Give the backbone structure.
Amino acid sequence: MQSETSDTNNPECLAAAAVSAELALGVLDGAEREAALLHIHACDACAHEAATFRRVADSLLEAVPEATPLVPLLVPAPSRADAPVTTAPAGGARSTRRGWRRPAWPRPALLTPVFATGVAAVAAIAILLSGPARLQSPTRASASLTLAGQSFGDVSLTTGKHVSVAISLRDLPDVRSVRCIVWQHSGRGATIGSFTVSNGRASWSGQSPWPVSTLRSVELVSASGRKVAAAHIHF
Amino acid sequence: MLSVAATDEALLELVASGDQQATTLLVRRYERRIYGLALSVLGDPHRAQEAAQEAIERVYRRAASFDPERGTAGGWILAIARNAAIDERRRSPVAPAAVAIDALELASRAPGPLDQAITNEAVASIRSKLAGLPDGQRRALVLAAWGGLTAAEIAKREEIPLGTAKTRLRSGLANLRGALNAPAPEARAPAAALGLAGATAGAAAAGAVAPGIGGGA
């Protein structure tokens, strides 16, 4: 533990002080940021200075001028599934990127005959170019994370350029952190990340290294290596 | 039933647990600020829309990692929003000077949203204190906090040495901290207080020091 007042002769304190405002304002990058953080973690006086600056910077940020978005921002929605697996077809009315739910109110521009004709033409061209099988492939699948018949949450897989694996946990007892493992039908598995569980709850997402069509299951494993929940994927 | 008066911190906790009502409430509560921030950073409404949506997604995914002991929920959410906007800017860079000027002029020309925001006492207070800073410090802080510009970018934008930009940021934040801890000084009119309209290089120079606020470039 160091002094509660900055050591004005300590070059490290001086260096940290020189960039503490930029650090608090979130505009410090790279080596400067790392060096400042390293020192701040070890120096109480500089940590105190950084904390007070951060509070002021937060207040400043909260006073940012507001503006109305072009369209209301989409509200994220966890993928819920009563059945073990549900899939949403590509282009479905509620199919949005990464499980986002569109606002309930209709968008008039989407209802015009001209727009509908345009959509039909584009769809026809897409079928001609890529064939019907491509349009029928799922864009999102979700499944319950269970163990011994009890559900602890959901996993949602989104296809596309990257295969996103989104986990939503609730009521998972006696576990503080878990690793997420994806398994292929071939028996090959990969840990794609780990995350903290707070009071049985967590929300996390990672990426599968493999195409979603090759995946068999998603497993959550505790720090001690115990399987705490799993979801089986069927396409 | 979720109360619309729930604190941001309580909402974040519910969002982390997958509560849809809380998620909707949080998005609606913050979307104007998140979009406003993205617009300040990017200067383009369409890119700002994309960045704001990405910011909401990040907040949703990371809600469980929010630690109330490390700062306010609002600061946490808006820091994520600013980072999302900066990431978007880095994907297709534009001149920082143009972005910042556009954003600042937009802010100064939009009395409607600004007046609405001023109804929030805390926001009115911080803007009033910000208005009391010397011009150079105020501009540096606004360019960094709302425009997402680094000290180097501010130096280039303001045509000042890098050291001066860093000093303005540090002095500005220290003076703002002092002003927030001091008894409330006289408040200026919001638009004039921000000193955003017609900002020029001349105005960027450190000006007179407001009563009760320390000086320095």
In short: Chain B has two domains: 1-97, 111-217. The longest helix of chain B spans residues 20-42. Chain B touches chain A through 69 residues (CB under 8 Å).
